[in-house]
Design brief:
single chain, alpha+beta, Protein Transport Mog1p, Chain A, 7-stranded antiparallel beta sheet, 3-stranded antiparallel beta sheet, 3 helices, 22% helix
Length: 165
C-alpha cells in the first residue's frame, strides 16, 4: 500500500466514527464525541453528549467531570473514594469490573458498574485520570439491558480525549 495513502485512510476512518472536536479552555481538555451525538446541558458536569436515539425514554450518554484533588491524591486512593461515592449515589451499585488504562497519555482507571437511578437500571463505564491537581472523569451511561452498545462510543470518546498542557 502507498505509504502516503495510509494517513489519509486513517483520517477518513476516524472522521466516520467521530464527530467534531469539543474544546474546553477553562478546564484544559478536548474531546471528540461519536459522530451524530449531540452536546447537551446537564447539571453537575462540564459537558455531556447524547446518542441520537433514546430507548425507553433514556438516551445513552457520555459526560466529563473535572474536580480538584488534594496534592497527596493517588490513582489508587481516588479509585477507593470514587467507589465509595458511587455506592452512596446509586441504588444497588455493583462493580462489574475494573482495569488500568491510559487516558490522554497518562495512567488511569476504568470502572464498569451498574446501579439504579430513579426508574432506570443502568450500566456505566467510567474512566478517570489525575493530572495537574485535578481528576478528569469520563462516564458513559446506558440502560443495563443495552450495555453492549456503550463500549464502542466510549472507546471513541476516551481515545479522542486530550488534557492540554
Amino acid at each position: 500500500m502507498n505509504s502516503k495513502l495510509l494517513p489519509a485512510l486513517l483520517a477518513a476512518l476516524l472522521t466516520s466514527v467521530a464527530g467534531a472536536e469539543y474544546v474546553n479552555k477553562e478546564y484544559g481538555f478536548s474531546a471528540t464525541p461519536p459522530k451524530g451525538w449531540k452536546q447537551v446541558d446537564a447539571p453537575g458536569v462540564v459537558v455531556a453528549f447524547t446518542a441520537p436515539n433514546a430507548v425507553a425514554g433514556f438516551a445513552t450518554n457520555i459526560n466529563v467531570v473535572v474536580q480538584p484533588t488534594s496534592a497527596d491524591m493517588s490513582l489508587q486512593k481516588y479509585t477507593v473514594v470514587a467507589q465509595a461515592a458511587l455506592k452512596q449515589a446509586l441504588t444497588d451499585y455493583k462493580l462489574l469490573g475494573s482495569r488500568d488504562i491510559t487516558l490522554s497519555g497518562k495512567p488511569g482507571k476504568e470502572l464498569m458498574f451498574s446501579g439504579r437511578q430513579g426508574q432506570y437500571t443502568l450500566y456505566f463505564i467510567q474512566n478517570f485520570v489525575l493530572s495537574g491537581g485535578k481528576v478528569y472523569g469520563l462516564t458513559g451511561t446506558t440502560l443495563l439491558k443495552d450495555k453492549a452498545v456503550l463500549a464502542a462510543p466510549m472507546a471513541t470518546f476516551a481515545g479522542g480525549f486530550r488534557i492540554k498542557p
